[in-house]
Amino acid sequence: MTKAAQPKRFAEFFAGIGLVHEALKDTGWECAYANDIDPKKESMYKGHFGESPYYHLGDVWDTPSVLKRLEERPFLATASFPCTDLSLAGHWNGFEGEASSTYFGFVNAIKELGDAKPKVIMLENVTGFLTSKGGADFVRAVTTLAELGYWVDTLVLDAKIFVPQSRPRVFVVGFHESLQSPRIIRQGQRAMFADAWQTAIDEAGTLRPQVLRKLMAETNLPTGWATLELRPPKQAKYELASVIDTGDDQDWWDKAANDKHYAMLSVLHLAEVESRRTAGGLHVGTVYRRCRNDEMRAEVRFDNLAGCLRTPRGGSARQIVIVIDDGRVRFRWMSPREYARLQGAPNFVLAENTIQSLFGFGDGVCVPVIRWMDKNILTPVYEDECVPRQAIPAKRALAK
Ligand SMILES: C[S@@+](CC[C@H](N)C(=O)[O-])C[C@H]1O[C@@H](n2cnc3c(N)ncnc32)[C@H](O)[C@@H]1O
Fold first, then answer.
1. What's the pTM value of the predicted model, to 2 decimals?
2. Mean pLDDT of 142-167
């Protein structure tokens, strides 16, 4: 195989504060281009990564400007396009919604790159992507990639495998048909007795839940489905208490706010709190405020996980911390630093404005999840394609 001399560079569409970059930089990926429309996200990105002249603040639909700024043609393009319309909050508008349809702004830019398309594309979104319009939006998204010449893989990873946050996300990876990496297993390639692709999918188990496997089985792509030999990541050991600050120096609520939230607990949730209060010791949990039957309720969870971080639109989406310490029950808002830790970016530079930070992290990707995608898919394919074999550390080359 001839190795093209292409640097290990990527373009990050819908870059936000740059959590994809935060993960990819660990293995030497350099950002050639980042795009987002939100100046507050841009300022957080630059606060953390420094000047970043490649950051293009602008609308992804403005294809001429995108192409002008995207002078270099990177190996990889990533796109965690807005999820707003792929959930109840966005009325399930799907690709008819203004926010999530920006995916096609990204697609236009890729299409216009002609022969200089990225070799690999990675999309990330919420699991509502799989059910939006009965699966039709997902099928449209992957078919569009296939029409551009990409073989497609897809899987679901939950951040809770790596950090104490429940955050399942769908990934779609497009491998350009010109790629020669021998580790890409294309549908229809026959092994001794079975389709090698089907065998690889079966052996990857929980990476592809039933809803995803059904969609794949029902969708015939102009290229086809492809995959790598993947195994689900191992569950990390962690304690929610290790990312939540429990000391007296935190902004704990006063008695009135504490009492108000106590009163908002349902019988079941009150029992959860009371049993821990009377047991003594340290208990750390999180609380969501939800409207149930026109009444605002506080719902606690003590399962060692925070709920999925979201942007604090409307107030109720902001997470609350509950700490029970030797019988004393205290509540407070979860802090931006705790959001950063739950996204696997504990040292990320915060914005001065709390809400700005919460928006940045609430919208972001979970860094260790992207690291897993990189270690298992992106970097191996890049190295197969672009790095002479003797330059790959012996252990990794052997693992092939
Ligand atoms: C799900 S967030 C991506 C967050 C990012 N991956 C991170 O880790 O910070 C989607 C992003 O799309 C951006 N966006 C929305 N509409 C856009 C448009 N028309 N052009 C460019 N970016 C847009 C939003 O500002 C938001 O930051």
1. 0.94
2. 98
